[in-house]
């Protein structure tokens, strides 16, 4: 039996999509979010309503500390 080649025409959803809980905006992590870079974290804000979506710790080459603390928390 030959497997079917028909299927959805779009690729499966990526796990790196961020969603704004305030207005419903969604975009990939590297999409249209407004990113404010601080010394130790990046703050992602919605381009539509300016809600802060997440503060993500920045990683530095050769830096072993992977703590999740961010000054904006």
Topology overview:
Elements: E1 17-19, E2 26-28, E3 34-37, E4 41-45, E5 52-57
Antiparallel strand pairs: 1-2, 3-4, 4-5
Largest sheet: 3 strands, antiparallel
What is the helix fraction of residues, given as a range?
under 10%
Oligomer: single chain
Task: Sum up the overall morphology in one term.
Answer: globular
Protein name: DUF8106 domain-containing protein
Your description of this structure?
With 73 residues, this protein is mainly beta. It has a domain at 17-57. It contains no helices and five strands. β1 (17-19) and β2 (26-28) form a beta hairpin. It is globular.
Task: Explain briefly what this protein structure is.
This protein has 73 residues and is mainly beta.
Features:
single chain; 73 residues; mainly beta; three-stranded antiparallel beta sheet; two-stranded antiparallel sheet; 5 strands; 0% helix; globular; DUF8106 domain-containing protein; DUF8106
């Amino acid at each position: 039996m030959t497997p079917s080649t028909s299927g959805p025409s779009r690729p499966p959803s990526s796990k790196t999509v961020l969603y704004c809980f305030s207005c419903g905006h969604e975009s990939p992590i590297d999409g249209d979010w407004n990113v404010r870079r601080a010394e130790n974290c990046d703050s992602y804000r919605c381009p539509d309503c300016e809600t802060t979506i997440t503060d993500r710790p920045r990683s530095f080459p050769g830096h072993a500390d992977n703590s999740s603390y961010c000054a904006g928390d």
